[in-house]
Amino acid sequence: MGALTDLWKSERGLLTALILIAAGVLAGLGILTADQWMDFTKFIFVTYVSGKTVTSAFQIAKGSTSADSTAADPSASKGDASGSGT
Asked: What is the pLDDT of residues 61-75, one digit of tens each?
């Protein structure tokens, strides 16, 4: 269930869902044919999976995950590398 909530929290997941809903509405209104709708949804799925794969590959190549990058240096987000806060 955590993967689904992460999907809804991400911009990529939300945008994908909105585009698929829009394509469904256009197909329901008769603007898109069933074949066009299938091609469009396949394109969206392939684009999503490709983006996710590339993002993961870069994280693996860097040797960190998204959780590691935020926990690695908490002072880096404050703009103070020394960690003194002054």
From this structure: 888 655 555 555 555
